[in-house]
Design goal:
Layout lengths: L52 E6 L26 E3 L5 E3 L2 E6 L5 E6 L13 H14 L9 E8 L2 E6 L6 H6 L8 H7 L13 E7 L3 E6 L20 E6 L3 H10 L4 E2 L7 H5 L4 E7 L2 E7 L9 H9 L3 H8 L4 E3 L13 H11 L3 H10 L12 E2 L2 E2 L1 E7 L2 H15 L4 E7 L1 H10 L4 E7 L5 H6 L12 H12 L3 H17 L3 E14 L1 E2 L16 E2 L2
Parallel strand pairs: 1-10, 1-11, 17-18, 17-19
Antiparallel strand pairs: 2-3, 4-5, 5-7, 6-7, 8-9, 9-10, 11-20, 12-20, 13-19, 13-20, 14-20, 15-16, 21-22
Helix pairs in contact: 6-9, 7-10, 13-14
Length: about 550
């Protein structure tokens, strides 16, 4: 649903950057960031009384500022907008633009009652009609429109009340209301700009009037009339800073250099290898958050060899996650064995313990399973074979340095049980394209979404575009999870589905990354681990 604060159908496991994302949200999330730039700049303005320009170094540039056309949303392209609902710092659903909400007994009607004091950045009042129009537009034109669910119709029953009708109950809609996908747009600006809305958007958020310099930066100015901040923000009024600047610096060395020079206040997605060095800089704080998703070793389950569950189970048992976390990730990750990490609702400690017991590191048991499947090292070359055919797979992954380190460790570990791994590094677009087409054997990817519906988007037969998994009972349970409105009952449904996914594994869960952010000479920084939101309006620049 990577941040990846929200991930979209283009990113989840499927990209899985979804609704990050991005990652990624969740009990925890890393913050996602769009970009690429090069030129150094003079040190940013500072102030102890408020004001100044807050500068963030972000590695990825957003594709557009129009949430209905974007393939991902994160803190770079969501500053213009406000969500309809939010989550507090304990993960509980909370009001935002809607002061209250209600779901009908049959789960098919969501009633949203809007605050009456909210205005667009143009000064026009927020109305139910504008919310209605924005949701309808998302459900019509967005590449991620399926995330909105089976909407039947939307009504503005009075100036401040919106009713959303569904063809069937759809529990994940709460997650959609928390993100910027359904944020209301200024209707006059939308009418004026149409498809070009993303070039000069107007909404209700804390920052406005974006100045876009492609390949270099994105600058916002504060909304001076803002007074309806996120519920967990300390500053409920206009931002303390005057400007918010995202500089898109893709190259790690350039990003680190700019931070050291003092031209950047916030450095997102710090490579774990630089953390100790940055900690030594005066005025620097290191912030860490678990990402709202996980990295995994995926099988192409439509391949004949992976239809033998013993092969998949043997590979899972050959993986020792501790060296991966310590050496490939410098300790900034948590090993995971089950289908969902603790950063996504639906995580079950019972399932995690069961998966850990089944797939804890066990080379001898893995070799035994391979032998039962007919694979032994018949010619003493160190590689198991069957009928003269060696057990050899191509491992597809992106050009991410951390993933490449992970791949090298996996290659060494799997060789211990007689599995030959050929590492194939490509750009992420190629990895996605090949895995979607089924032109792969093994791959390393990631997913994220702050709702267990991620499993439907990844594992349901018609949606399983990466691991190409199909299990009728899993399909039935994941569909039931979407229509079960009682939270406790819903989590039990997912737990049952997860148990099947452990016994018949479509992948090998590896770890949840710890997103590292370095801040310098600022106060008031915090991140909501359940949504990935950073209330930049809280931040003050220090001298």
């Amino acid at each position: 649903m990577k941040k990846r604060r929200y991930t979209t159908l283009a990113t989840i496991g499927l990209g899985v950057t979804l609704l990050l994302a991005a990652c990624t949200g969740t009990n925890s999330t890393g913050t996602s960031t769009p970009g690429t730039n090069t030129n150094a700049t003079k040190p940013p303005e500072k102030s102890t009384e408020g004001g100044g320009a807050l500068v963030i170094a972000a590695p990825v540039e957003p594709d557009t500022l129009d949430p209905h056309k974007s393939t991902w949303l994160d803190n770079t392209n969501s500053q213009l907008y406000d969500s309809i609902l939010s989550r507090d710092l304990q993960g509980k659903l909370a009001p935002h633009l809607a002061e209250s909400w209600q779901v009908s007994d049959d789960g098919k009607v969501w009633t949203l009652v809007l605050r009456k004091d909210v205005t667009f950045q143009s000064g026009a009042p927020l109305t139910a009609e504008s919310v209605k129009a924005s949701i309808e537009r998302f459900a019509t034109i967005s590449p991620s429109k399926d995330l909105a669910g089976p909407i039947d119709k939307i009504e503005a029953t009075d100036p401040h009340t919106v009713k959303v009708y569904f063809k069937e109950p759809f529990a994940p809609f709460a997650n959609m209301l928390v993100g910027s996908f359904l944020s209301p747009f200024d209707p006059e600006r939308l009418k004026e700009k149409g498809d070009q809305f993303g070039e000069a958007p107007l909404a209700t958020g804390p920052f406005m009037n974006p100045e876009i310099k492609r390949g270099a930066s994105l600058t916002y100015v504060k909304n001076p009339n803002y007074k309806w901040a996120l519920p967990f923000a300390e500053n409920q009024g206009a931002p303390h800073i005057d400007k918010l600047v995202f500089r898109f610096l893709k190259d790690d060395d350039t990003r680190i250099l700019e931070f050291k020079k003092g031209t950047v206040h916030i450095l997102q997605e710090v490579p774990s290898t630089y953390v100790q060095e940055l900690q030594a800089i005066p005025g620097t704080k290191i912030e860490t958050n678990m990402e709202q998703g996980m990295k995994y070793l995926g099988f192409n389950n439509q391949k004949e060899i992976f239809k033998d569950v013993r092969i998949k189970q043997a590979i899972a048992m050959a993986v020792d996650r501790e060296p991966i976390v310590q050496y490939a990730l410098s300790g900034f990750a948590k090993p995971i064995y089950g289908p969902l990490p603790p950063t996504i609702p639906g995580y079950s400690e019972k399932i995690e313990n069961m998966a850990k017991e089944m797939y804890g590191y066990n080379v001898e048991k893995a070799k035994q399973l391979l032998a039962e499947a007919g694979y032994t090292d018949s010619n003493n070359d160190g590689i198991a074979d069957k009928g003269g055919k060696p057990l050899s797979f191509e491992l597809l992954l992106s050009d991410d340095p951390a993933l490449q380190r992970v791949a090298q460790i996996l290659q060494s570990q799997l060789k211990e049980i007689g599995v030959d791994i050929r590492i194939a590094v490509h750009d992420i677009a190629t990895v996605k394209d090949r895995s979607t087409k089924g032109n792969h054997e093994l791959f390393l990817l990631y997913f994220g979404l702050n709702d267990p519906d991620i499993l439907y988007l990844l594992m349901q037969t018609d949606n399983s575009k990466r691991v190409h998994y199909s299990n009728p009972k899993v399909d039935e349970l994941l569909a039931k999870g979407r229509t079960t409105m009682n939270e406790e009952d819903r989590m039990k449904v997912y737990e049952e589905a997860e148990e099947i996914l452990v016994k018949d594994p479509p992948w090998v869960p590896l770890y949840v990354s710890e997103s590292v952010t370095a801040t310098r000479n600022i106060e008031g920084y915090k991140l909501n681990p359940f949504t990935g939101d950073i209330p930049f309006a809280d931040i003050r620049i220090m001298k």
